[in-house]
Amino acid sequence: MKKAGQSKDERIEKLRNLVLYHQRLYHEKDAPEISDEAYDSLVRELRELEGVGEEGSSVANLVGARPSEAFTKVKHQVRQWSLNNVFDVPELKDWEESLKRRLATEGLSSSVLEYDVGPKLDGLKVVLTYERGQLVRAATRGDGVTGEDVTHTARVIDDIPEKLSVPVSLVAVGEVWLSEKEFKRINEEREREEMPLFANPRNAAAGSLRQLDPTVTARRKLSLIIYDLDFIDTNKTKFKIPATQQEEIALLQGLGFPTGKHTALCHELRDVIDYYNEWKDKRDALDYGVDGIVVKVNDITLQRRLGHTAKAPRFAAAFKFPAEQATTVVEDIVLQVGRTGVVTPVAHLRPTKIAGSVVSRATLHNEDQIKRLDVRVGDTVVLQKAGDVIPEIVSVVNELRPDGTKAYRFPKKVDGCGGGGLIERIPGEAAWRCVTLDSDFIHRRRLYHFVGKTALNLDGVGPRIIDLLLDEGLIKEPYDLFTLKVGDVIDLPGFKEKAAENLINAIQGAREVELPRLLVALSIPNVGEETARLISEYCGSIENVIGANVEELASIHGVGQIVAESVVRYMKDHQNQKKLRELLRFLTVRQIERVSKQSVLSNKTLVFTGSMVSLSRDEAKLLARKNGAHVTESVSRKTDFVIAGNEAGSKAEKAVELGVAILSEAEFLKMIG
């Protein structure tokens, strides 16, 4: 497909306008349209195209936004800053090297750097000013120089002390935040009153603090964490001026401020990385949202020597957790032919880093999805990946669409299909498929699948060996594998006697197979691991599957009409019958063990998401089945429990939306004893 073009200057201009637009929505209106991660991705691209870093002059490096005219403007006693971001360990190491170079110019090259670290709260920054222990002003960050006076609403937040325990004068900086529970309550209330919903807890907190009427703020249970001391005058009290960031936190805590419970002192960068990895995995255990950790040089004297750029302190950085969303460009849309002949559109992307790995492909699922999103070649898109979920495109950034793009249309023919390559839309479905399935490409894909992990699981036999056996004319159909002898393969390229023996042993070892694995291996359209298991449990033998009708298969919980029709259609096809009879000559089909014991999970429907700690996902599913549960892949109103491991993705979100109970791995294991 012809790729739409856009000059560098055009791209920069559109990005500048878009970044400014989203800055205003986020800082001034508390109503973002995209995630923080997608915004960060746009900002990084703009900096790269402009050739500026985080210290350069660019709209990407603006601090906050101008104060609203609805509030009294307050000039900050101490300038307020943003933090520069680092996104991976190499960038973190580069940041430390820049500190050392800077200190070397100050004659401090031998200084040992220690770091104060803590979770990076996703709330609204607030600057509190006290005179002789009395709260006199609370302000938002604004543009860093001038903020909004929100003293009237800050006074109704229980966590903000009206009077300190000691009559010192100071400026303390922290984050106002809202718990997930309170966020949900507020949105339910707004929904009943037919008001727009808040996008996330951060914006709900911001909208609650930036109220003209403090009674609205008082009804919402805002919380506060103080993490910095910008200025202090001890007023001849016993308090000593802190020499380190850690001492600052201790002093603030002693004065009655709520401070974070999870800060730590790291003696070297390796400790910072360990702390980051720890909280990356358990951030969901916190009451507030976090999107990374904050790393600060602990020694305040060194902080002063390092100083600030126009935007941020040099001595601190935000080490962001792997983004679950990012923006990138669709370079092409390619149709991929599967082993069942279904044609799936795949977006070829400009490589981008997301959820800790580089991604250059994303499925577009089907024609209806392409039309719904209106994805075009050349578009900038928001890509999402959570946990082990396959990356998907969730939206198009229309403001960055190049001129001349065209809506995608499915072609009439696709390479990889049989016959003349013709494709057709499956009646009643959103998918397209090959009209004929006799292509060499599809045949090879089916054989790869037949020997694969979820099917017969022939150890050490993969696509390379299958291709070799096909190209040498040693096999044509799956059952031909079981006729091979060592002498047939010993002279193949790259084979010696031991390799030949291992191959034949692997094939012979697969002669005894469980019924669900056989059904998966046959490449029956719409039949996956779970449906194969459900059908096997109901039918009991391959003979019963062959003889089943649509009505009885459709009545199986978790199977349904479409799968039932696919199975019956496959089993009634004369060519399939002939090939299956030949295959069964070589196989002993073993029925899976039926569940006999009763448990609290008997006849319950479970969905697993995220990664497990004490066992693999497959082991967890097997345990669930042995305890009488049905395991499915998608969350619906019929789901009883979602078992959420680390980095649980959209399935957990769907469970919350539908009110389905979510269990942790520990709760699941406790339930089954």
TrEMBL record:
<feature type="binding site">
    <location>
        <position position="296"/>
    </location>
    <ligand>
        <name>NAD(+)</name>
    </ligand>
</feature>
<comment type="similarity">
    <text>Belongs to the NAD-dependent DNA ligase family. LigA subfamily.</text>
</comment>
<dbReference type="GO" id="GO:0005829">
    <property type="term" value="C:cytosol"/>
</dbReference>
<keyword id="KW-0479">Metal-binding</keyword>
<dbReference type="InterPro" id="IPR013839">
    <property type="entry name" value="DNAligase_adenylation"/>
</dbReference>
<feature type="binding site">
    <location>
        <position position="141"/>
    </location>
    <ligand>
        <name>NAD(+)</name>
    </ligand>
</feature>
<dbReference type="GO" id="GO:0003911">
    <property type="term" value="F:DNA ligase (NAD+) activity"/>
</dbReference>
<dbReference type="InterPro" id="IPR003583">
    <property type="entry name" value="Hlx-hairpin-Hlx_DNA-bd_motif"/>
</dbReference>
<comment type="function">
    <text>DNA ligase that catalyzes the formation of phosphodiester linkages between 5'-phosphoryl and 3'-hydroxyl groups in double-stranded DNA using NAD as a coenzyme and as the energy source for the reaction. It is essential for DNA replication and repair of damaged DNA.</text>
</comment>
<dbReference type="InterPro" id="IPR041663">
    <property type="entry name" value="DisA/LigA_HHH"/>
</dbReference>
<feature type="active site" description="N6-AMP-lysine intermediate">
    <location>
        <position position="120"/>
    </location>
</feature>
<keyword id="KW-0862">Zinc</keyword>
<dbReference type="GO" id="GO:0046872">
    <property type="term" value="F:metal ion binding"/>
</dbReference>
<dbReference type="GO" id="GO:0006260">
    <property type="term" value="P:DNA replication"/>
</dbReference>
<dbReference type="GO" id="GO:0003677">
    <property type="term" value="F:DNA binding"/>
</dbReference>
<dbReference type="InterPro" id="IPR004150">
    <property type="entry name" value="NAD_DNA_ligase_OB"/>
</dbReference>
<keyword id="KW-0520">NAD</keyword>
<keyword id="KW-0460">Magnesium</keyword>
<feature type="binding site">
    <location>
        <begin position="36"/>
        <end position="40"/>
    </location>
    <ligand>
        <name>NAD(+)</name>
    </ligand>
</feature>
<keyword id="KW-0436">Ligase</keyword>
<dbReference type="InterPro" id="IPR001679">
    <property type="entry name" value="DNA_ligase"/>
</dbReference>
<dbReference type="InterPro" id="IPR013840">
    <property type="entry name" value="DNAligase_N"/>
</dbReference>
<dbReference type="Pfam" id="PF14520">
    <property type="entry name" value="HHH_5"/>
</dbReference>
<dbReference type="InterPro" id="IPR001357">
    <property type="entry name" value="BRCT_dom"/>
</dbReference>
<feature type="binding site">
    <location>
        <begin position="82"/>
        <end position="83"/>
    </location>
    <ligand>
        <name>NAD(+)</name>
    </ligand>
</feature>
<feature type="domain" description="BRCT">
    <location>
        <begin position="596"/>
        <end position="673"/>
    </location>
</feature>
<keyword id="KW-0235">DNA replication</keyword>
<keyword id="KW-0234">DNA repair</keyword>
<dbReference type="InterPro" id="IPR036420">
    <property type="entry name" value="BRCT_dom_sf"/>
</dbReference>
<feature type="binding site">
    <location>
        <position position="175"/>
    </location>
    <ligand>
        <name>NAD(+)</name>
    </ligand>
</feature>
<keyword id="KW-0227">DNA damage</keyword>
<protein>
    <recommendedName>
        <fullName>DNA ligase</fullName>
        <ecNumber>6.5.1.2</ecNumber>
    </recommendedName>
</protein>
<dbReference type="Pfam" id="PF01653">
    <property type="entry name" value="DNA_ligase_aden"/>
</dbReference>
<keyword id="KW-0464">Manganese</keyword>
<dbReference type="InterPro" id="IPR012340">
    <property type="entry name" value="NA-bd_OB-fold"/>
</dbReference>
<feature type="binding site">
    <location>
        <position position="320"/>
    </location>
    <ligand>
        <name>NAD(+)</name>
    </ligand>
</feature>
<dbReference type="Pfam" id="PF12826">
    <property type="entry name" value="HHH_2"/>
</dbReference>
<dbReference type="GO" id="GO:0006281">
    <property type="term" value="P:DNA repair"/>
</dbReference>
<dbReference type="Pfam" id="PF03120">
    <property type="entry name" value="OB_DNA_ligase"/>
</dbReference>
<dbReference type="Pfam" id="PF00533">
    <property type="entry name" value="BRCT"/>
</dbReference>
<dbReference type="InterPro" id="IPR010994">
    <property type="entry name" value="RuvA_2-like"/>
</dbReference>
<feature type="binding site">
    <location>
        <position position="417"/>
    </location>
    <ligand>
        <name>Zn(2+)</name>
    </ligand>
</feature>
